[in-house]
Design a protein that fits this description.
The complex is a heterotetramer of chains A (208), B (245), C (54) and D (239).
Chain A: E1 5-15, E2 18-29, E3 33-38, H1 44-51, E4 59-64, E5 67-68, H2 73-78, E6 80-83, H3 95-104, H4 111-120, H5 136-149, E7 154-158, H6 166-181, E8 185-189, E9 201-206
Parallel strand pairs in A: 3-8, 3-9, 6-7, 7-8
Antiparallel strand pairs in A: 1-2, 1-4, 4-5
Chain B: H1 4-9, H2 12-44, H3 58-85, H4 88-120, H5 128-149, H6 153-185, H7 200-232, H8 236-244
Helix pairs in contact in B: 2-7, 3-4, 3-5, 3-6, 3-7, 4-5, 4-6, 4-7, 5-6
Chain D: H1 4-11, H2 18-35, H3 37-57, H4 62-94, H5 97-102, H6 108-137, H7 145-169, H8 177-204, H9 209-238
The chains are: A alpha/beta (208), B mainly alpha (245), C mainly alpha (54), D mainly alpha (239).
């Protein structure tokens, strides 16, 4: 089996009249993190969604383990975790239920694992409250608990540290560091510094 | 098998130039056939022994009804090609079809009801063909509504293409169920000229009209296709040349 | 000629039917040409404004 | 350097079978629906209300109402299920759940099937349970009720499935309810025709089997094709 790697070549994406991605390319191998920066509207979210296979670029390719990701999209998508800039949580379910249904659809997960993930992100005090009653930062923490349970080789994170306090931002760094230490990859769109060991971080700046 | 022609058709500059060159080859024969069919249908064909001169509406009603169905089918085929192979030109063709088809569906409905008045004694009869035609009009309107509702061209292309394919699968089911429904209620079905016994002098103008309308559709499609390609295309070098020409 | 225009008493139905159909044909030709002219104009504008990518 | 194999060993996360994922999706939707019972009642109240309009608009004479009962019943059922369609994917699209479904590595078709099944359990099934009362109010004899329930049960499956395509296509269109009806109603006509016919036969006491078979055929056809189309439509809407 070839090593986990994400090779992106010459991505061009159009949204209506806008040329959003203009020849984006990078190579990322196991244990590396790509930090994507750029002004609002520079296409950070579009890049992540294109990498995830949600958007279809007009040109260019995304290769996973040396094979075009589109060749077997479902398997590729099963080996990635995507966290959009809104936490994918249902307002009318509790934090714990949300994780149960969200992560449970991807992997086996028992109550103990859920509890420890929630404890890890400091969410045990509000784990059984409806998400609609949680603050933006608390929701983000619940989403991070979900991410911590996504043991998959590729993480695609859109502004993972928004709405978080300093401690929460450090937590994002720890989670990414763990993912890299496992031999995983991460692509994170951020507008401030990622609290991750600089040696493992590569950078990509998107311009307007 | 050699699919080069298929890939070349997928290339906008090639299709644009081809459409431009082909248009007169469809437009003029269409005009000639329609004029000849008009002369044959209005002047040369004898009055029907039952319907008198009223039957002459068939020379515009039947071609319009044929257009409404043929255009929908063409649209669905183009849409499916665009959806499966992600060919922009095919989506452009599908988008060009809808207004043409919808307008001829309206023509078929109006001429049908104008034919109905002298034959049935009422402008509207829930006859299976007219009813199916009405449903078809709603399918066209839905397609155009969906297309207009989505701002992003690519997404509009793909969403409406899916709708066209779903619609074309449903058309025979709808037609069958409407016919079945109609047979239960025994409504009169008058719009049935005795086809096999139709005299050649009546039939030939009809065939000319059918062919003429089909060629007219091709010509209209080619012109609209060029417009759609121009609005979609982003590589400007060939556009500059195409516009200069 | 009058006989022809009278259409055996069906003039009130035959002629409107033909009129509607040929109006639809005429409108289609007009719309198609207008769409093309419009697309050409906006493509030219895009080229001139230099907004279009190479 | 870590390889794919190394990652898998470290992970040891047990994957989920498609069936488990589907049942989880189903349970999620049911749980959510019962947290908002008012939303569940709306289509039913609407159905009752529309049924009530007919006696008021036509005549209180049961014998007259009986003649229009099949049409009234099915038009009301069609409109009620249309009303409920708007909730089918809307919330999931807004909060990112659909995105996660599409990226879950499970078959999106199967997951959407689960969602549509949940939708049918919450709207089609209650409609079928209410149909006999509406039919009685419109003058149907009590012998006809079982046939009416059967026809609404079968027909509403198809309505939910066709509706799922329309709902998926209009996902990110603002104020889409009129468009949703324009897309869905023409496709639903066969259900209306066969369903009303079955109801009519049930009321007049004829042989029900033929129209019910036609309804079942439609349901099978919709069951095989609609989830594929809905999944494709959701993917297009997420693009």
């Amino acid at each position: 089996m070839s090593a986990d790697s994400l090779e992106v070549e010459n991505l061009h994406l159009w949204r209506g009249e806008r040329h959003v991605l203009r020849g984006v390319g990078f190579v990322l191998s196991a244990g590396q993190c790509l930090k994507v920066t750029g002004a609002n509207g520079a296409g950070k979210t579009s890049l992540l969604r294109t990498l995830a296979g949600l958007m279809y670029p007009e040109d260019g390719s995304v290769r996973w383990r040396g094979v075009d990701a589109r060749a077997d999209l479902r398997t590729f998508q099963g080996s990635l975790a995507y966290l959009g800039h809104e936490p994918p949580l249902k307002a009318d379910l509790t934090a714990r239920e949300n994780l149960h249904y969200w992560i449970g659809g991807r992997r086996r997960v028992d109550g103990a694992a859920l509890a420890s993930a929630l404890a890890r992100v400091g969410a045990e005090s509000f784990a059984d409250r409806l998400v609609r009653t949680l603050s933006a930062g608390q929701r983000r923490r619940v989403a991070l608990a979900g991410l911590a349970l996504c043991i998959v080789p590729l993480w695609l994170l859109d502004e993972p540290a928004t709405n978080l306090d300093a401690e929460g931002q450090a937590l994002v760094g720890t989670l990414i560091a763990e993912q890299l230490a496992r031999g995983g990859l991460a692509v994170a769109a951020v507008h401030h510094e990622l609290p991750v060991e600089p040696a493992q971080v590569r950078s990509l700046e998107l311009s307007l | 098998m050699n699919f080069t022609w298929f890939h070349r058709l997928g290339s906008p500059p090639y299709t644009y130039a081809l459409a431009r060159r082909l248009t007169p080859w469809f437009a003029w024969p269409a005009a000639l056939l329609i004029l000849a069919g008009l002369w044959g249908g209005l002047v040369l064909a004898p009055p029907d022994y039952q319907q008198g001169d009223g039957f002459r509406i068939i020379y515009v009603h039947a071609p319009s009804a044929w257009m409404s169905l043929m255009v929908y089918t063409s649209m669905a085929v183009a849409a499916a090609v665009g959806l499966i192979w992600r060919i922009k030109v095919a989506h452009a063709a599908a988008a060009s079809c809808a207004p043409i088809g919808a307008s001829f569906t309206v023509a078929a409905l109006v001429t049908g009801s104008l034919w109905g008045q002298p034959m049935w004694g009422t402008y509207w009869q829930w006859d299976p063909r007219l009813t199916s035609e009405l449903v078809l009009l709603f399918l066209y309107l839905g397609y155009m509504g969906l297309r207009a509702g989505i701002e992003d061209t690519q997404r509009a292309d793909r969403a409406s293409a899916l709708l066209a394919v779903v619609g074309v699968i449903n058309v025979p089911i709808i037609h069958y169920s409407v016919t079945w429904w109609n047979s239960l209620h025994q409504a009169p079905s008058v719009m049935r000229l005795a086809k096999p016994t139709m005299a050649a002098s009546m039939l030939v103008p009809l065939l000319m009209m059918l062919l003429g309308f089909t060629l007219l559709f091709a010509a209209l499609l080619l012109v609209r296709l060029r417009a759609e390609i121009l609005t979609r295309e982003r590589t400007s070098s060939w556009i500059r040349e195409a516009l200069r020409a | 000629m009058r006989e022809f225009l009278d259409m055996g008493g069906y003039a009130a139905f035959v002629w409107p039917a033909y009129a509607v159909t040929f109006a639809v044909i005429g409108l289609n030709i007009f719309w198609a040409r207008r769409a093309l002219a419009h697309a050409r104009r906006s493509a030219l504008r895009r080229l001139e404004s230099g907004n279009a990518p190479p | 350097m870590a390889t794919a194999g190394a990652y898998t060993q470290a992970a040891a996360a047990v994957p989920v079978s498609a069936l488990e994922a589907v049942s989880l999706a189903l349970r999620r939707d049911l749980t959510l629906a019962f947290r908002k019972p008012a939303q569940l009642l709306q289509p039913l109240a609407f159905f009752a209300l529309v049924t009530m309009l007919f006696p008021l608009a036509i005549s209180p004479e049961l014998s007259q109402l009986r003649a229009v009962a099949p049409g009234a019943l099915w038009a009301a059922a069609l409109l009620a299920s249309l009303l409920a369609l708007e909730f089918l994917f809307r919330d999931d699209a807004l909060d990112g759940t659909l995105e996660q479904y599409a990226l879950s590595g499970q078959s999106l078709t199967a997951l959407l099937c689960a969602k549509t099944l949940a939708h049918w359990l919450l709207t089609g099934l209650p409609l079928a349970c209410m149909a006999p009362f509406a039919a009685l109010a419109l003058g149907a004899p009590s012998a006809a009720l079982s046939g009416i329930v059967a026809s609404v049960l079968l027909g509403s499956i198809t309505l939910s499935l066709i509706g799922s395509i329309g709902a998926a296509l209009t996902l990110n269109i603002k104020r889409s309810s009129a468009l949703l009806s324009l897309l869905t109603l023409p496709l639903s006509l066969p259900v209306l025709i066969f369903g009303a016919r079955a109801t009519q036969v049930a009321i007049s006491g004829g042989a029900l089997i033929a129209p019910l078979e036609l309804l079942a055929a439609l349901a099978v056809l919709a069951l095989t094709l609609a989830p594929l189309a809905a999944a494709a439509a959701v993917r297009i809407s997420l693009e």
